[in-house]
Amino acid sequence: MPLEVNKHVQRIRRYQPFDADTSEMIYELQADWTQSLFPVVTLTYLLDAIERPTMKTIVLTGDAGHGKTSLCASLLAELRVDAETVTPEIRKTVFRELSDAGDASRPIGQTRSGRPLYILKDLSELSVPAGARKLVELLDPADGGVAIICANEGQLRKCAAEDDNLDKGGTGRAKILVTTLTKGILCGQVSDPDGTVTVINLNYQSVAADSSNGGLILWVLKQWTTTQWSRWKSCETCDARVVCPILANRIELSDPTRGPQRRAAVRDLFAAAERTGAVVTTRQALSVISYMLTGGLSCENVHARYQRSHSNRLWQAPHLYHQALFGDRLTQQQRHLVPAFFALRKLDPGKVSRRQVDDRLDPDTAGDFPPADAGSYLQKVRTSRDAQKQAEQLRSVYTFLRRADFFNSDDDRDRFARMGLLAGDDFVIVQDKNRDPADTRVRDRFLKGLEAVQGIHRAGSNPDFLILDPAFFTHRGRAAVISRRVPSKGVEVVDQVTLWQVRSQTGVAPEMQNAVEWLNRAIYIRIPAVVAGQDAVSVEADLLRFELLTRWAAGLRSEVQHEAEIRGLSGSLAELADSSNKDDEIQVLAGNTMRKLMIDVGDKIRSVRA
């Protein structure tokens, strides 16, 4: 049998931006028009939004790579076919038209109600003054039409600021776009009160959405490994199939029994990365999955290895999906092209040592492609250099085995801990609307961590939360003045959606979670304000910050390493300090002992235990 080149593998590799000819991989450069597109909920939202009678302007903003251009092309295609299936020919046609008329100089189509549709595919292609004029023009499109503007946030703000300069001929009208964007960040609402302007912030878009379909990651893995089996048929007749890590990855991820749990573990890893504060764009997700599935190899690379040795099974290990996902073989410069690799590497289960995991690992069960020859790390040690070399080899072997076991494990309850996030399960529990309201463990741990940020370490479970005078946050000696004591009973921990609902004061669910592929990425602790009637102070924590707070609550001291994080939290806590207390009684924390300092006659200061 001959050595076969799988065209499906070639198509998948196009998403990797590590070659000069693929460094700008975007929707427009896709040559495989038969490949279906992920049914993103934003497309459904756009189809509904453009039909609203009051709607005039829709802005799609967010980092490059979220798929703004792809959304516009998909919208045009859907408007062309109505209830029919979008064919490759229609997709090619709308792509050409978007290239020709994507400057919003003329209508590129029309809504189903017959209104002209204008699309500005990239605001960054215009200078700031020209962009400002274009924004004002598209706030009221000609002939009662609807305009869609694709813009990254920085350029949008620059153009709006340019129009806000009345001395240079600005109108001040473009400010509504930035105002609506800010409202979306604060309250999750994407439309202005009049319903004429909508700004969808795609930085809230998740590639591992908490939805029934599991988001983009699961969809792509199914499309590339389990759907359309004929695309892998050429591999069945290839001479190199028995030593090919690309085919092995596909078989592992498409296995009817173990495949679903392996794909779910990949999705969980991406979800955890997003919850730690990383913004993973659609482009980055496709690049990582492409590299993971191919191991960074092409069919020609595998053929060359096979021709050197038909039976060698020791070179494949770094290219298996559970190793390639963390980009070990990529250079630092290559990882910077796909920043998602940095976020994933922080959560590498291969670097986390857990006794209950390591005790069951066995190199003899590593599969068809072991991480190393057993003779290389089990030989006798004679010198310190031999010991060092053996330790490095064993570390590499255990990293391989831990990663493989993470994706093969049937138990998904321990996944956060295996990523080094001991507080991950508690973080997710906050989003459960059916959780027991009497369970205060997460709240108490959160408060104890905030006390630790201020240098307060009290034993046991306390019914109150102490806030130091801001002057003692960073310069605390043996004693510190307590500015305020907050009863824990009035404190609550909520997720992002709940906080938005509280801030909007309408009780209406925020539109943002319906406008994008949604995943709750932050939790908030709401502490009553100093002055009655004012809104509570909300302290934000993503998964990484919550993990730090949990460890600080348990006694971890790391002021230097996490100085920036501590400074940010201290700033939030300063809002809670009570500077209006004019009593002659001062509460002081000396060591871990509460004392009261009272001013007596003759300005004598007396101290008693509080």
Automatic annotation (TrEMBL):
Stretches for region Disordered: 353-377
Top-rank taxon, per record: Bacteria
Basic and acidic residues composition-biased segments: 353-363
Protein name as it appears in the record: Uncharacterized protein
Biological source species: Nonomuraea jabiensis
Lineage: Bacteria, Bacillati, Actinomycetota, Actinomycetes, Streptosporangiales
